[in-house]
């Protein structure tokens, strides 16, 4: 085996349809929504496991649409300094010019 070849490979093969895929998506979507709260606009089940009745790789794929969680804020101080911040619900990043 050459050095460019991996000694370990992960193969995902298409399997028979499984009704649990939809249930797993619903369960995980609720868990994600509870962690991210109002930042989420929508959570979509995508790719092959989202299509009922077809063979698919047994991996649940999500597409999560978020609100703009970075809000630019600019303030000018009394001394004329401009401070720009990017704020999320939990953190703030600031730069002063």
What does this structure look like?
There is one protein chain. The chain is α+β, with helices and mostly antiparallel strands. It has two domains: 12-66, no CATH class; 69-97, no CATH class. 18% of the residues lie in helices and 31% in strands. It is built from one helix and five strands; from the N terminus they run αβββββ. The strands form two sheets. The chain has a three-stranded antiparallel β-sheet with strand order 3-4-5, with no helix packed on it. Strands 1-2 form a two-stranded antiparallel ribbon. The longest helix has 17 residues, at 20-36. It is elongated. The N and C termini lie far apart (57 Å). The model is unreliable at 91-97 (pLDDT under 50).
**Low-confidence segments:** 91-97
Structural class: alpha+beta
Q: If helices are DSSP runs of H or I spanning 4 or more residues, what is the number of helices?
A: 1
- Sketch the topology as an H/E string, one letter per element: HEEEEE
Principal-axis shape equals elongated
The chain-level mean pLDDT equals 77
Into how many domains do the coordinates divide? 2
Q: In percent terms, what proportion of residues is strand?
A: 25-35%
Number of extended strands: 5
Give me the side-by-side strand order of the main sheet: 3-4-5
Q: Give the terminus-to-terminus CA distance.
A: 57 Å
Gyration radius from CA atoms, angstroms: 22 Å
Largest sheet: 3 strands, antiparallel
Helix percent reads: 10-25%
Q: Oligomer, anyone? A: single chain
